[in-house]
Design goal:
Length: about 475
């Protein structure tokens, strides 16, 4: 019997798990994929929103502003990349200026600090590459950028070190109320728990509707992106938005914390909860919209494109807290943008509510900090010499595009909740995220996975499940 079972190991589920790990509770996280950060959390804009967009008084507004403030300190405690680069919202038409001022007023009601309307030549002093059609822009200095992979992994590792269990490749099939709480049937057996946290992304409505008469309805909203080479990384300094519409905050252009340039997302409501394929139509639309903000945006330097799904609940807001007619069942549903920014605040809110319900006490030995894998690409010469002296594998470069070494890959495999696939290595070390998109480093990374996990080459996958990279051998394994 568990005290709490969290369904979903995305950024929201892992944030809840990390906060729960500070209490004397027996907690389990169930994840249908082979690793954390395999759904929406790995395919988004990587933006820490300032909090000016959501309606005052909404869950989105409250969690966004609180989450924005919390991420700054959390990035230091858990050692993941974050930068407060500020954000801009562009207005192209004189008649839309009232909407821009309304956005500023809304942000001020939400508690966003430092908002300012910028006009005239100062626009291009701040961002020389912006369109000359820009009439004014809203500047939010508290906006930021983050690495969503490393943030989610950091939360999960810290939760695990503090006693939270994780079960991967475990798909929830049914939930039923029991005398002591809930029974959860999965493809890997049954779990009994006093409380559930439903952080299942686009599937959160399915699990809520198994136990509650207050039915939720989540529509997957597909967003397509273009990621550009690091040569384009300095094109803009701030995150550049356009005035939002009913479909979201529109196509943005932003630097990433790793030095690339990102453009996207589009917004298309679809029925398929697995519909993460990109489309020619979507990418063309993205390109034309991005050029509205900056005509010379270097889309020709695109190294990859991808799509993610936002969990859009028909009520238009996050659904948070205990279901009225299903005591002990806590929702974190409809977590679309600004979900990444809000995750730390959602984790704190739900963990506190659950701890109060279960009369749980705080741990005296809670470990609040965590250290990331050393990054050779960003190490000083002194640090590099020290690492190589301790372990020569840190001097053996495997991924040339991102300067990732064997030492970093081995570290990624053997740390808490270590990598088990090429994508797991990629999210933890960036091996394969560069210009060649793993064209050169994948075979060597596979060999390291085989060696460290003591697996056959035929067992190594791109992303778990059936995504095996080799179909067979042209000679016996003893010859390898």
């Amino acid at each position: 019997m568990y005290d709490v079972v969290v369904i979903g190991a995305g950024v929201t589920g892992c944030a809840v798990a990390r906060e729960l790990s500070a209490y004397q509770l027996k907690t389990m996280v169930l994840e249908r994929e082979e690793d954390v950060c395999c759904g929406t959390s790995k395919a988004n804009s990587a933006i820490v929103h300032a909090g000016f967009d959501a309606a005052p008084g909404s869950w989105k507004a409250r969690m966004n502003v609180e989450g924005n403030r919390k991420i700054r300190q959390l990035s230091k405690e858990l050692d993941f990349p974050y930068k407060q680069n500020g954000s801009l919202v562009l207005c192209f038409e004189e008649q839309d200026l009232p909407n821009l001022y309304e956005l500023k007023e809304r942000g001020e009601k939400n508690g966003v600090e430092g908002l300012e309307i910028i006009t005239g030549q100062r626009i291009w002093e701040m961002e020389p590459n912006l369109s000359k059609e820009v009439k004014a822009m809203l500047y939010a200095p508290t906006g930021g950028i983050v690495c969503p992979f490393k943030m989610t992994i950091a939360l999960a590792e810290n939760a695990n070190v503090n006693g939270v269990e994780f079960a991967f490749d475990t798909c929830v099939e049914n939930i039923e109320k029991t005398e002591k709480g809930y029974g959860i049937t999965t493809n890997n057996g049954r779990y009994e728990t006093r409380c559930i946290v439903n952080a299942a992304g686009v599937y959160a409505d399915v699990f809520n509707n198994m136990v509650s008469e207050r039915k939720l309805s989540i529509t997957p909203r597909r967003g397509e992106y273009r990621l550009m080479d690091k040569k384009a990384g300095g094109f803009v300094e701030h995150t550049v938005f356009q005035l939002p519409t009913a479909m979201g905050k529109g196509v943005l252009i932003t630097p990433t914390v790793h030095g690339n340039l990102l453009a996207g997302p589009t917004a298309e409501d679809i029925e398929d909860k697995e519909g993460v394929q990109t489309t020619a139509f979507g990418l063309d639309k993205l390109s034309s919209q991005a050029k509205k903000s900056a005509e010379e945006v270097p889309l020709f330097l695109t190294i990859t494109s991808f799509a993610g799904l936002r969990a859009t609940e028909r009520g238009g807001d996050f659904v948070l807290g205990e279901a009225e007619d299903a005591k002990g069942f806590f929702n974190a549903a409809g977590i679309e943008s600004p979900g990444l920014s809000s995750a730390p605040a959602i984790g704190l809110y739900l963990a506190h509510a659950i701890a109060e319900k279960l009369h749980a006490e705080k741990k005296e030995n809670f470990i609040s900090t965590r250290k990331d894998i050393p990054c050779i690409a960003e190490s000083s010469p002194e640090e590099l010499r020290r690492l190589i002296a301790e372990n020569p594998a840190y001097g053996n470069v495997i991924c040339r595009c991102e300067t990732v070494t064997e030492g970093e890959i081995v570290n990624a495999i053997h740390r808490p909740l270590g990598a088990r696939s090429l994508d797991g290595i990629k999210r933890r070390t960036r091996a394969g995220m560069g210009r060649c998109q793993s064209g050169f480093c994948a075979p060597k990374t596979m060999e390291i996975l085989e060696r460290e996990l003591r697996k056959s080459p035929l067992e190594i996958t791109k992303a778990g499940g059936s995504s095996r990279l080799l179909a067979g051998l042209d000679k016996g394994e003893e010859d390898l």
